[in-house]
Amino acid sequence: MTALQQPARAEGPLRPPVRVPFPVVDEVARHCLQEEEPETVHIEVHLPGRLDPDRLRTAFAEALRRHPRILMREAPGRWYRRRYEWELTAEPDVEVVTFPAPGRDALRDARTRALTEAPPLSLSPPIRVEVVEGGGPVEGSEAMDAVDEMRTSGEGARGVGSLARAGRVPKGTVLFLTINHTALDGPACLRVLATAAELYGGKDNSPAAPPTRSTSEAPPPPEDTPSNWSHPARVAQGTPEPSPGNGMLVTELPLPHRPKGSPYTVNDQLMVTTALTIAHWNREHGALPRPLRITMPVDDRPRDATMPIGNGTRLVEVPFIPDELERADDDMPGLLSSTALRTRALKSLPRPQLGHGASLLTAPWAPVAVRAALTRGLRRAAAPWTSTTLLSNIGRIPYPLDFGEEAGRAHAVWFSAPARMPRGLTVTTASTAGRLHLALRWSRALLGHGDGAHLRDLFEHYLHTTEVTP
What we know:
Layout lengths: L18 E3 L2 H8 L8 E8 L5 H14 L5 E3 L10 E4 L8 E2 L7 H11 L10 E7 L10 H10 L6 H6 L7 E8 L5 H16 L44 E9 L11 H19 L7 E7 L15 E7 L1 H5 L5 H17 L7 H6 L6 H14 L7 E8 L7 H4 L4 E5 L8 E8 L2 E9 L5 H17 L5
Parallel strand pairs: 5-6, 9-11, 11-13
Antiparallel strand pairs: 1-4, 2-7, 2-12, 3-4, 6-7, 8-14, 9-10, 13-14
Helix pairs in contact: 2-6, 7-9, 7-13
């Protein structure tokens, strides 16, 4: 969301709430809502200690007031209205923070709710925070001392599960944030969480300085990149599941090594890894080689308290041709360098968040009901040109997310993005405490859990292959 934040407090009891028209991204998402596949973003934050319920609720309530643009609900209106509008509220309509009953399946059930139950747009704010105590281990770390032991032993992060079964991993607390993606995105909600952490624990949660990037003019992308008008490859059909909605798998991996002075970034390594993973998957399933296009969100917002809250990323598409992926074994440095040229060039180009066509669709030339039907029809017609997949690399979590001495600092943070068809698969990564946290999310109409596990293994393999010496 690009509109400026503004307080929603009215000066008198009879003054109506402030209303703000939906920005382009919000309106397109609102037009294309599907009950069977909710547009949710999930954030999963693992803490080593416990949280006090009253203190946490108080901290979140104050954090929402400090970022008033999150306190909003969809304003009611007639079918013939020309715009959807957000209605800004002075206080939440619902209790944002809840504490589900702890239990053996509490972590799994919270993940399921994050994928299947979107916070309603009709109630302010459109987020939900669930606090799972004693969530138990996941495929990533649940206590840094246990993870360090597994690294030393050479077994990796997956060995944490065996330590947990032996009773040697403290269970801690898991914060589940579920976001209605029509209203805001993961980085914006993470900013609110950092404010809540600072208010709760009294620790400084200011963002770390962003990495230094070259300010030289980005070169044009290589001439042999495929046209965006060509039909990109689709993720090949796996073993779909009968139930609708999304499935998800999270895991922890080592951050890929990158030699000092490399012309590429970790993001470029993740981009190449994603392309090689899908190319391998498609070969295994008999799909003909086709160019891949991977959508990459780019976020230029500041990370401090002035960060605009809403959907603030713009989308670019990074192309790959089959030949360069097939030559990766022989020329990985070349593939990484060419990918770096493409991503730098795409990031430097000024472009509306969803392209110029979306701005025309959301202009108020007709009632929203008419434009919604047109948008859904165009989306179905454009399905063959939709990118192969989406890679959302949050990068290093910029905030400590330190909740004080008792609860501690976050040692693992996962995000996942919606995975509706025709893409059917999204890859989301973030790094915390020197580890890479990977979430694979898929449409159950395309893949099953076994497929997700295989894609995770392929991703881990190809991530290692990007650790090359120039």
